[in-house]
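Module 6 notes. Inverse folding takes a fixed backbone as the condition and produces residue identities as the prediction. Think of it as a translation problem where the source language is geometry and the target language is the twenty amino acids. Below is one complete input and output pair. Work through it position by position during the lab.
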């Protein structure tokens, strides 16, 4: 398994993990909860939401693969039982690509002489469907690992405080660590989405900041209501 093949799953799994976990941390900070409660809420979120997201990824990718195989079987049936219609579909595909005359007929004859090539061409150019190169399970695993690995960043300082009593401004340190992680995820997001680096970093920082602000004030307001 090559890491670069799963970079998109790592980016979006990690981004969701750190957003949701830092939202929990911010909400707990707004409510004035101590480190032990932040850790409990944070890890519960990591495990439950990470599992939920990975299951969603598995089901979505499994469904895509199932759809691809279903239409592939139908195309083989058409090639076997209605070849003239299939040839005409290939002809129309390449007419749209600008071929005509003898060149067009040569291409049609060459493609329809091999059933596998014939079906693959119709899947790609007629139905716009391509086979998945990675298994749904591996995608789900990468998503779960990224969600938990990156999502652990906001909790790190609270874990240190719980075991060593470092007595720092925990929420501020957690926020700085999270901002750095957001920037790294933004860089990877820019690479995956082929967009300017500054744009990916700005978007992820804005997303994380927005979620944290909302969670912090929600925690603060609810703590005031129920205290």
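Target side of the pair, the amino acids:
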């Amino acid at each position: 398994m090559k890491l670069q093949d799963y970079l998109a799953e790592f980016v979006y799994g990690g981004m969701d993990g750190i957003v949701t976990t830092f939202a929990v941390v911010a909400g707990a900070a707004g409510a004035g909860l101590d480190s032990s409660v932040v850790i409990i809420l944070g890890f519960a979120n990591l495990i439950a939401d990470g599992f939920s997201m990975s299951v969603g990824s598995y089901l979505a990718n499994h469904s895509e693969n199932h759809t691809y195989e279903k239409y592939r079987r139908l195309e083989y049936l058409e090639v076997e039982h209605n070849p003239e219609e299939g040839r005409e579909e290939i002809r129309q595909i390449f007419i749209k690509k600008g071929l005509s005359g003898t060149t067009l007929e040569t291409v049609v004859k060459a493609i329809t002489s091999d059933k596998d090539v014939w079906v693959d061409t119709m899947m790609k150019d007629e139905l716009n469907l391509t086979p998945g190169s990675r298994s749904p399970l591996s995608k789900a695993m990468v998503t779960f690992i990224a969600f938990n690995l990156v999502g652990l960043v906001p909790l790190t300082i609270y874990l240190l405080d719980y075991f060593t009593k470092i007595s720092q401004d925990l929420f501020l340190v957690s926020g700085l660590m999270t901002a750095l992680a957001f920037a790294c995820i933004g860089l990877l997001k820019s690479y995956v989405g082929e967009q300017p680096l500054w744009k990916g970093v700005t978007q992820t920082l804005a997303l994380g900041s927005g979620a944290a602000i909302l969670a912090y004030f929600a925690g603060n307001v609810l703590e005031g209501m129920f205290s």
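Reference fact for the lab report: The chain has a mean pLDDT of 84.
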